[in-house]
Amino acid sequence: MIETYPNAGALADAAAHGIVAQLAEALRMRGRAALVATGGRSPGPVFDRLAASDAVDWSRVVVTLSDERCVDEADPASNARQVRERLFQARAAKAHLLPLWPPPAVEALTALAPFDAVMLGMGEDGHIASLIPGDPGLQDGLATKDMLRSVPAGLGKPPVARITLTLRALLDARAIFLLIAGEAKRAVIEQALAGADLPVARLLGQSKVPVRILWTPDGG
């Protein structure tokens, strides 16, 4: 179930190839496509490869985020800033961004679902998006039928207030790509697959949406 790649570049190649295939199929079948991007270190090289792809008509692709820090987009902590700087370049400069902060209209987000591809990272505590262990509202984020929820300051790095897609929203997708690096995170994935009570385990334990786990020992 865990796809192993020798280095971060090989992982990025595989992830980008899979995401491009999903987006291209959506454009062929429905004339539009929706991608959920994510923050952190792992997606940067994937964004670079996506930006160079000529297999996608990016003018018909809308990109939103799995989660966001409640900061101005100019802030280095902003996930939207990383998406603009790494993905919205070259051929992908014509894509459209639906930021999560300030929160978008629910109707605008709902209109994108089901998402054609969802990119996720994972923390060493087993969190995905900003569904973070220790959050008093975590169970609501895992069970609610709403698409968005707020996360109070004090959790994650940096410990600022956040907004996140809920588990229900993440699973309203056609394919999920979980990008992880390093031995510590592989151990967390194996614990989740064995039944540990972690947010990522909820993702891996469902059968509604195919999840590709792409792992490399490089860049832990």
From TrEMBL:
UniProt keyword Hydrolase present: yes
Purpose of the protein: Hydrolysis of 6-phosphogluconolactone to 6-phosphogluconate.
Keywords: Hydrolase
InterPro entries, sorted: 6-phosphogluconolactonase_DevB, 6PGL, Glc/Gal-6P_isomerase, NagB/RpiA_transferase-like
Organism: Phenylobacterium kunshanense
Pathway(s) it belongs to: Carbohydrate degradation; pentose phosphate pathway; D-ribulose 5-phosphate from D-glucose 6-phosphate (oxidative stage): step 2/3
Molecular function via GO: 6-phosphogluconolactonase activity
Entry-linked Pfam families: Glucosamine_iso
GO biological process assignments: carbohydrate metabolic process; pentose-phosphate shunt
Protein name per Swiss-Prot or TrEMBL: 6-phosphogluconolactonase
Domain Glucosamine/galactosamine-6-phosphate isomerase per the UniProt entry, residue ranges: 7-204
